[in-house]
Specification:
The chain is an alpha/beta fold. It has helices at residues 27-39, 47-54, 73-86, 117-125, 145-163, 179-187, 216-223, 227-234, 238-253, 266-269; strands at residues 4-8, 10-11, 24-25, 43-44, 63-69, 91-94, 129-132, 169-171, 192-194, 208-209. The chain is globular, with a radius of gyration of 18 Å. Bound molecules: zinc ion. Residues 69-70, 133, 137, 173 line the site of zinc ion.
Length: 270
């Protein structure tokens, strides 16, 4: 069994009305989530260990890979010190041509700053692995062949130059991929690529999204080994959909509530 993979975006204080998709987890929640992982016996692993596991190496049953998409400033400012203090490795996916600029895809009310090239180098030196997130955060399924090459081959070369070592993995902007995009990423020399939903082998690895609405209770549900399968099933089986919704939805209604029962197994069996 390959380790589960968590996907974060930003870690910062961003008002909910400016962040309608809940992309930013507060630093306090992020710390509580990381401390929970460790206390609950999860074993955060490095990108290299994760890749070795995909090649057949054995990892602890509760191994988990922590990833961040987009390269937001707050990840350097807030998340990196927390991860460092707990000894937790992670991978940061950045759109290399946009470093030092601002995100344009979060809506009109949030032009959130991205890490600079120098800050990305600093995070690498602190132990964070750096992966590619295209060149400029475009939907690659709509890119022409020349642009797709730029977003995969040239992005890898530029990022490799920046961090001074081979860039091993890729995360699809918006999680969007198709057969042509996956083939381009593989041909560019990456060893694996991450999506969000729609698992498609080594170049379309599913991740569990952790966002601003999550509490420790919903995080526990999402960390359950069968959660991704349950979520997939829930699209097709109404009863399961209702149960998954109830399980996660009740936590949304009580954001202060952090305690809760373990995941009822019948949810994923129906
Ligand atoms: Zn992104």
């Amino acid at each position: 069994m390959t380790p589960r993979v968590l996907m974060y975006h930003g870690v910062d204080h961003v008002a909910r009305e400016r962040d309608p998709h809940g992309m930013f987890v507060t630093p306090a929640n992020f710390r509580a989530q990381m401390e929970h992982l460790v206390a609950a016996g999860f074993v955060p692993v490095t990108e290299q260990a994760y890749l070795a596991a995909r090649d057949g190496a054995r990892l602890p049953r509760k191994a988990v890979l922590i990833t961040f998409d987009d390269g937001y400033q707050g990840v350097g400012e807030h998340a990196a010190p927390i991860l460092e203090s707990l000894g937790i490795p992670s991978v940061l996916y950045v759109p290399v041509d946009l470093l030092g600029g601002r995100a344009t895809w979060l809506g009109d009310r949030l032009r959130y700053p991205l890490l600079s090239a120098g800050e990305v180098q600093g995070l690498r030196a602190q132990g964070m692995a750096i992966g590619a997130h295209g060149s400029d955060h475009a939907d690659l399924t709509r890119a022409g062949d020349t642009d797709l090459r730029r977003q995969t081959v040239e992005a890898r070369a530029a990022l490799t130059e920046l961090v001074g070592e081979e860039v091993a993995t890729f995360a699809f902007p918006y999680g969007l991929h198709d057969r042509r995009v996956r083939a381009a990423v593989e041909a560019a020399g990456y060893r694996a690529a991450f999506s969000v939903h729609d698992p498609a082998g080594r170049f379309g690895i599913q991740r569990v999204d952790v966002n601003a609405t999550d509490t420790l209770r919903t995080l526990r549900v999402k960390l359950h080994g069968l959660y991704p399968a349950a979520r997939r099933t829930s699209r097709h089986v109404p009863r399961t959909r209702r149960l998954v919704h109830d399980l996660l939805g009740s936590a949304y209604d009580a954001p202060g509530a952090v305690a809760g029962p373990a995941v009822p197994v019948e949810v994923v069996r129906s």
